[in-house]
Each structure stands twice: as C-alpha cells, then as structure tokens.
Amino acid sequence: MNILVTGGAGYIGSVTVSALLQEGHEVTVYDSLVKGHPAALPAGVRLVKADIGDRDALQQMLAGRSFEAVMHFAALIEPGESMRRPDVYFENNLCKSHTLIQQAVAHGVRRFILSSTAAVYASKDSPIEEQDRLQPANVYGQTKLMIEQMLEWYRLIHGLHYAALRYFNASGAMPDRGEAHSPETHLIPLTLQVALGQREVIEIYGTDYPTRDGTCIRDYIHVADLARAHVLAVEALEQSDRAVYNLGNGSGYSVREVIDVARQVTGHPIPSVASQRRPGDAPILVASSERISRDLGWQPQYPDLRTMVETAWEWHRSHPYGYG
Length: 324
Ligand SMILES: NC(=O)c1ccc[n+]([C@@H]2O[C@H](COP(=O)([O-])OP(=O)(O)OC[C@H]3O[C@@H](n4cnc5c(N)ncnc54)[C@H](O)[C@@H]3O)[C@@H](O)[C@H]2O)c1
Prior knowledge:
By secondary structure, this protein is of the alpha/beta class. It folds into two domains: 2-171 and 221-247, Rossmann fold (3-Layer(aba) Sandwich), CATH 3.40.50; 187-218 and 250-318, UDP-galactose 4-epimerase, domain 1. The protein is 39% helix and 18% strand. It has a seven-stranded parallel sheet, with helices on both faces. α1 (11-22) links the parallel β1 (2-6) and β2 (26-30). The radius of gyration is 19 Å and the shape is globular. The two termini are 32 Å apart. The relative contact order is 0.15. Bound molecules: nicotinamide-adenine-dinucleotide. Nicotinamide-adenine-dinucleotide binds at residues 6-7, 9-13, 31-36, 51-53, 73-77, 92, 96, 115, 117, 167, 169-170, 181.
C-alpha cells in the first residue's frame, strides 16, 4: 500500500514507518518537524516538511500521488500544556486535523488511521473497554475525541474507512529509535534522565490520589507493539469501515512502581520528590485490549514493564541527547 504518515518523524510515527517498510508498504512522511527529527526516519524515506494545516502543501502532495491510506500521528501531545494553552491544542490538533481529513477525502484517500489516546476516557479503577464512558480530563484528550467524531461523520457522509487507535502510555524503544521529546514530560524517560545524571530528582505529581500508593496509575505499551497494531489495522480497513481499539496491556503501574522498576534496571537510586497534582491528570487509566486481540489477532510482544524500561534505558544510554 502507498501510505502517508503525518508526524512520521516523531517517536511512535518513526517506529511505525520502519514497521510499514518492513511489511513492504511505500511510505511518505509528512511532518512540520515542530517536534520531530529527520534522523528518526529510516534511510531513503520521502519526507515532506510541511504543516498539516497548510492546505496548499497538502493539495500539492495529494494531487501528485495517490495514497491508499493516511496514518495521522501529527499532534501536540502534552495534557498539562493543553490545560494552559487550550487555543493552541484546538488549533493544532483539531482544526488542522480537519484540514487534513478534508483534503485526504477530496483526493480519494479511502482509509484513515488516527492516533487517539486513553485520555478520551473517564478514569476507572478496572480495565477500560471501548464502550466505557468518554470524559476527557484535559483539552488534549478532548481534541482527540472530537477528531474521532469528525471521522465518524466523514464515514457516514463520504464512506471514509477509519480506525481510531486509543493508545495508553507509549514507552520503550528500538535500538535505533526511541523517545526524544522536548521538553520531555513522560515518566519513564524523565526517570531515566535522573539515572543518566541529567536531572537530580524525579518529581511525583500528586501523592494523594485514591490509589494503592497515592500516585497515578497508568497502563504502558511498547512502541513496537503500537507499530504492529497500525500494520494490522490498515489491512483490516479493507473489510471494515470503522474500528475503535484500545492499545494497552491491561496492567496498571503506579508512578512509584515505575520508578522502582527503573531503579532495578539502572542500578541507580533515582531520588524522588513529591509535588502538587498536575491539572488534567486522571487518577487511573488502564486498558482492556481484548477487542483488538479478538478482531485482528494483535498480541503484545513486549507486555512487561521491565522490558519496556530496559529497552528505553538502552536507547537513552546510547543516545543521551536523543537525536541531537
Ligand atoms: N506518546 C504517547 O504516550 C501517546 C499516547 C497516546 C497517544 N499518542 C498520540 O500518538 C501520536 C504520536 O505521539 P508521539 O509520542 O510520537 O509524539 P511526537 O511529538 O514524538 O511526534 C509528533 C510528530 O507530529 C509532528 N507535528 C505536530 N504538529 C504538526 C503539524 N501541525 N503539522 C505537521 N507535523 C506536526 C511533530 O513534528 C512530531 O514529529 C500523537 O498524535 C499523540 O497524541 C501518544
């Protein structure tokens, strides 16, 4: 298949691009590089450096080549920032996604896969299923939910086949590709930065949540398992016109538990300090991924947290400044 990957120079996008190439697909990456890294791309991949809100650039690219599918990773991804700057998130994630969807449909693209998120759900103290209550705790999650809803209307009106993949916390790395966000706000890389001596302590945001140790509980999924789900989902959209899937491992780890695993993996004491809660953090988000396992036969290859932290540690040790 000929596939357009927006945000393909980012963390999850670049690992997915590599997986798509291995499966024999042709890939064009479309990324403004506002956060992405050209060095994350496999050699020889075509990169169009442009914004998904740039209608002319989209038109030019889509008119020049026909794509069977769009995988849409491009977004700003920080829940906390979205609570300080909702306008930026509604503009970049929602409005610009609409420009992309509209242009893709106008140029005959039939399949669309959205990087959605666990942040669309209300917090729940047992594994979340796809039909559970949708109640984003932050503007970031709200923008993803609204994109899902737009896609549903484009399905009904224009026959667009779409899948929304609701990832829980992406983590881990491949030997040559890993997490390199700036600023970094994700727990595992921040914790590993302490072990690398780049940061003095790891801050724990909120120690008074109604959870087993007072800290937030999250489900983690290895980035390679996310990439594999995209490969399966784009093939499945030949038959089905709509799919919404959770992607997690069904196990929740508290912030303190993740830090403990990082201590074991790195052998570093990793000091921590308790801080205030961050606006927009739900107490517990853990996935049930039974639906995608049943429908597409997806099974995580790296389900245990220790492996995720070990592969992330390998990446951060060998790339202490990311791609820089
Ligand atoms: N990282 C996670 O744990 C996680 C969890 C759930 C969902 N997601 C979703 O997965 C996707 C990828 O996340 P990531 O961690 O790889 O993020 P990332 O920041 O590493 O990658 C995002 C990419 O999108 C590009 N981009 C952003 N806005 C753009 C625009 N307007 N036009 C063109 N390019 C633009 C950036 O340059 C970057 O390369 C995002 O949509 C995110 O919401 C991520």
